[in-house]
Amino acid sequence: MRKKKKQRLPPALLFRAAGNSELAAQIEERLIHQEYKIWKKNTPFLYDFVMTHGLEWPSLTCQWLPTRRTLADGNRIGALGGSSSNFAEQHELLLGTHTSSSDNAGGEDGGEGNDDGGGRSEMNYLMGRRRRARRGGGGGGGGGANPAAGGSATKEEGKDEEAGENASAPPANKRIKSSDGPSPKSVVIDAPEPASNYNEEKDELGGYHANAAAPSSSSSSSSSSSSFGHQQQPRVGKIDIRMRIPHEGEVNRARYMPQNHFVVASRGPGPDVYVWDLSRHSSGLASTSADDAATSSSPTPCPNVVCRGHTGEGYGMAWCPMLDDGCYGRLVTCAEDMTVRLWNVRDALSSNNAGGGQVVISPESTFRYHTDVVEDVDWHNRDINMIGSCGDDGLVCLWDVRRDTSLPPLHVIRDAHDGDVNGLEFHPINEFLLATCGSDRVVKLWDMRNLKSPLHTLEGHTDQVFAVHWSPFDESILASCSADRRIALWDLSRIGAEQSAEDAEDGPPELLFLHGGHTSRVTDFSWNPNYEWCIGGVSEDNVMQVWCPAEDVYAEDGDDDDDDDEEGKDPAMMHRAKILGDDELE
C-alpha cells in the first residue's frame, strides 16, 4: 500500500525503441499516462485529500507562507452545509512564472519565443496564491493535530480530460501556456465511496477526500456533468491568485524572510537578487488576461532592493532562520559564478520604506572555493554563523561567516555524491544532521561531527534528486523531489526495521511514501507549516498539487504510547536515536 511497483516495458519493445528517439518518446509518454491512471484509481486509499490546480505558466518555485486565516462561514467558499461548524481555512503559497518570451534582452523575461505565435513578450510574475479548504466534521488526516481539510481531488475548468485521456508529460525544455485563462478555478469532485466515483468508460477514478459529503439527488440532477462523467458538487476548496508582482525574467526561486513574511527574495535569469516588500506593492490583479496584456503596456518590475554582485544566474538562496534581532535581513545566495555571497538588506529596506526609492546594495562577504556551479545554499538553524553550500564540483562546504573570506571553508566534503550535488538542508532541530541530494539519484545523511562518510544513504528515486526538505513537525521525516516525477517521504525512525521479502521489493523500510500524481518532473515543493503532512508541489507541466497522505500510510502498526519500555527495545527506534542523537545546543 505504501509504494507502487514500477512498470517495466517488454524487452522486445525496448530494443525497437533504442534506435528511434521519437518512438522512445511515444513509449515513455504512454507509460506516464498509464502510471497516472493507476495512481488516480488508488488516490482514495493513499490520501486524505488531493487538490490539483492548473497554472497559466509553469512555476519553478513553491513555498508555503506561514499565514493561516480561519473563515468562520463555510458558505464563503461554497462549502457544503453553510453552518458555523463548516468553517474553512485559508493558506497561502508563494509561486512564480516561467513564460515563453521573445525579444527580451539583458536577462529580462528570458525565453525562446511565444508558443501562441503572437510575437509578444510575456511578462513574468511573482505570485501569491491562496488555498481555501473546508474544515470541520469527523475524520483524520493531518497527523491528528488538525482534522482533514475539506479539499478533495480537484479538476480545473476548461481542461477537459487532461488529467485522464491526455495526461502526458510535455518535453522537459518546453514551456506551455494554458489556453484557459490566467487563473482556472478548481472544481471539486466528491467521492464518499470509491465505487461511486468510478468511471468505467475512462477506467479511472475522479477524485477523493476523507471527509467528502455524499451528494444529494437534487444537487446532482441540477448540476452539469464533470469531465470525469460525474455531477459537479458545491465547492469545498479552491485555489486562486491573491497577488501578482511583475518580475524580470522567469522566477527561478522565491523565499520569504522568516522574521517578516512580507519580505521576499527572488532570483531570475540575470545575476541580480531581488528583494520585495509585499506590503508596499499592489495586488496587480486589475488586468490579468492575455488579451488585456496585449493591449496595454507591460508593467515595470520594481523590487524594493536589488542585491548586485553575482556575475551569473543562480537558484540557491536562504535567509537566516533565527528570530534574533541580529538575523533580520541576512541573506546568503549562490550562482553559476562559483561564489557564495552574503547580504544584509536590513538598512536598505529601512531606507526604501522611508521613501528613498529602490536601493542597490553590494555583498557583505564573498566566499570562493567551489570550482563549478554552486547549486544550493542553506543557513544553519542553530548556529547563526554557519552556512552550507553545494555544487556541480561534488563539494559540500560548511562556512563560518565570521572568518576571513580568503580562508577555505571550515569543513569540506569532497565527492559527496557521484556527480553534481543539487541540494542540501540542515536539520531544524538536530544541530549535527545534514541532508544532501544529487544527480546520483540518492539522498545522503551526514553527521557534521564526522564527515568522512555519510551516516546513511536513502535510495528510492530513479532519476536525479533536485531538493530535500525536512518536515517542520516531525524530526525524523524528510521529503525529496526528483526528475522521476516523484516526491518521496522518508522516515528515519524506520531505518533498519525488519521487512518481509515482498516489502523489500518495493524499497527500503525508511521509504515511507511515493507521491506519483505528477506527469512531469517536479521543480519544487514545500511542507505546509500550519497543516501536518500537507505538501504543495509544482511540476513542469503547469500543474500544482496540494496533498496529504492517508493516516494509515505514516501511522506505526501497533502504536502504544503507554508502553515506553517496549518502544525503547524497538531496533528501529534505537537506530533512530543513533542517527538523530539527543544532543542539544548549549
TrEMBL record:
WD repeat coordinates: 367-409, 414-450, 458-493
Keyword Nucleus appears in the UniProt entry: yes
Keywords: Chromatin regulator, Nucleus, Repeat, WD repeat
Compositionally biased residues, Gly residues: 136-145
Gene3D superfamilies referenced in this protein's UniProt entry, alphabetically: YVTN repeat-like/Quinoprotein amine dehydrogenase
Cellular component, GO, one term: nucleus
An individual GO BP term: chromatin organization
Keyword Nucleus: yes
Comp. bias regions, Acidic residues: 554-568
Residue ranges of every copy of the Histone-binding protein RBBP4-like N-terminal domain listed in the record: 34-103
Span list, region Disordered: 98-239, 554-586
SMART domains reported in the protein's UniProt record: WD40
Entries under PANTHER family matching the protein: WD40 REPEAT FAMILY (PTHR22850)
Compositional bias per record (Low complexity), positions renumbered to this chain: 216-227
Subcellular location: Nucleus
Superkingdom classification of source: Eukaryota
Annotated protein name in UniProt: Histone-binding protein RBBP4-like N-terminal domain-containing protein
